[in-house]
Design goal:
mainly alpha, elongated, 3 strands, single chain, 150 residues
Length: 150
């Protein structure tokens, strides 16, 4: 067999392409995979927001603990978590105030975190009402608070 003949056969075979049936099989397989995978991926953003809210609450709670160590008390409800970013001008004086956060964070749904001092569940309550912005609820709409995260 001569070399040129083998080369021609290889080129003809490479140019053959896919048949319509082969393409349809690939499209059907992709469609089945999409139907199976996409619903699972759609829940992930909600889960990620809930995890982020819990992490934020833990971080802010830690900053509040440091605030208390430096100033001998937590910020009042009126001072809020803003006292971790800007020195409070009202209420108990923060004699040893230090900036503990770069900015006042919002929850993953774009709402401010809520802060009460004294809290009903501990020294302070730090929480978000979740996606729906209403107390209670389940799943992504559940209230997430520092008393629930330990």
């Amino acid at each position: 067999m001569d070399y040129n003949m083998v080369e021609r056969q290889a080129k003809q075979h490479a140019q053959r392409g896919f048949t319509l049936i082969e393409l349809m099989v690939v499209v059907v397989i992709l469609a089945v995979l999409a139907v199976a995978v996409i619903p699972n991926l759609m829940d992930r953003p909600d889960e990620a927001r809930m995890v982020k809210a819990k992490q934020d609450i833990n971080s802010i709670s830690s900053a509040l603990q440091l605030y208390k160590l430096d100033n001998y008390n937590y910020p009042t409800t009126d001072q809020g978590i803003e006292a971790l970013v800007i020195k409070p001008t009202d209420g108990p004086e923060a004699k040893n105030w230090k900036k503990l956060l770069d900015s006042v964070p919002q929850d993953p749904w774009g709402n401010p975190y809520l802060y009460l001092m004294p809290g009903t569940h501990g020294d302070f309550d730090l929480f978000t009402y979740g996606a729906d912005g209403v107390d209670g609820g389940e799943g992504v709409n559940a209230t997430i608070g520092n008393w629930k995260i330990k």
